[in-house]
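Consider the tokenized backbone below.
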């Protein structure tokens, strides 16, 4: 039974002699017990192995957790300062996440990279991720600018999918910030995505729909989604005009 479940995910069954650096065997916790299923202790044999790899993952992600937390504190401080000093606060909400062990393994595999923590450290820049949801497009650039000016940080990469949206209609401002951690003196990458509420609505729905959709209706769905992206862009542009009619212009507001 255990074999059947694992073979559908094309992963190896962890064995005690396996190298705990080898991420191709994970995610073992997908080997969940189904109702009424008897695993006959097969998973128990691997408990040592699983706990070793989990320990390694936990220490591997620690600096990424710290880098993400630092970015979050910066953003929360900005949010607080804006609330106190200006009449418009650009940040609606902040979300942070750390890539799970199974996502790390899957991504390395997808990119044809060696399944190891060292390789993940060298090649993956989205292990720590922070998403900032703003009200208006100008707010996105305000937040990006202020983040870039933070001390102990370097800009590793920047992709402006607002100025140049992806062909499917995806719009968001992406940056990879290198955050310096005092203990190590090294920079750890944090993928920061900054988008408006409208962009977030579209991206969340698109992600869900495209992931769930059957192959046959994909083309029609993509066409429809592109129309929605344009409509939302129009809507948020008009809302911004309404805002600026009764308030100060958003640009140069701060
Ligand atoms: P990955 O290998 O997927 O990380 O891509 P990349 O490193 O080339 O970066 P890219 O900027 O294309 O995408 C990074 C992240 O942006 C993704 O993990 C998603 O969170 C988001 N993203 C990018 N494109 C899309 C899209 O078309 N739709 C949605 N919903 N999200 C997207
Ligand atoms: Mg990425």
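A designed sequence for it:
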């Amino acid at each position: 039974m255990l074999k059947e479940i694992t073979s559908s995910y094309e992963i190896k069954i962890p064995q005690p002699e396996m190298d705990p650096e080898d991420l191709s065997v994970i995610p073992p916790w997908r080997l969940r017990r189904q109702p009424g299923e008897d695993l006959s202790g097969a998973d128990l044999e691997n408990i040592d192995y699983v706990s070793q790899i989990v320990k390694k993952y936990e220490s591997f992600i620690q600096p990424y957790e710290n880098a993400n937390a630092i970015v979050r504190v910066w953003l929360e401080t900005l949010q607080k300062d804006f609330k106190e000093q200006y009449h418009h606060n650009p940040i609606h909400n902040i979300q942070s996440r750390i890539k799970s062990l199974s996502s790390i393994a899957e991504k390395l595999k997808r990119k044809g990279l060696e399944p190891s923590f060292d390789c993940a450290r060298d090649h993956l820049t989205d292990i720590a991720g922070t998403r900032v949801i703003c009200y208006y497009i100008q707010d996105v650039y305000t937040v990006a600018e202020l983040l870039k000016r933070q001390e102990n940080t370097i800009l590793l990469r920047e992709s402006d999918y607002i100025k140049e949206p992806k062909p499917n209609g995806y719009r968001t401002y992406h940056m990879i910030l290198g955050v310096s951690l005092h203990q190590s003196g090294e920079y750890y990458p944090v993928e920061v995505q900054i988008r408006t509420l409208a962009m977030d609505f579209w991206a969340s729905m698109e992600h869900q729909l495209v992931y769930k959709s059957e192959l046959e209706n994909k083309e029609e769905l993509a066409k429809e989604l592109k129309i929605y992206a344009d409509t939302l862009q129009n809507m948020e542009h008009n809302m911004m005009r309404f805002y600026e009619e009764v308030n100060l212009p958003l640009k140069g507001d701060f």
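The pocket of magnesium ion (ligand 2) is lined by residues 126, 191 (CB under 6 Å).
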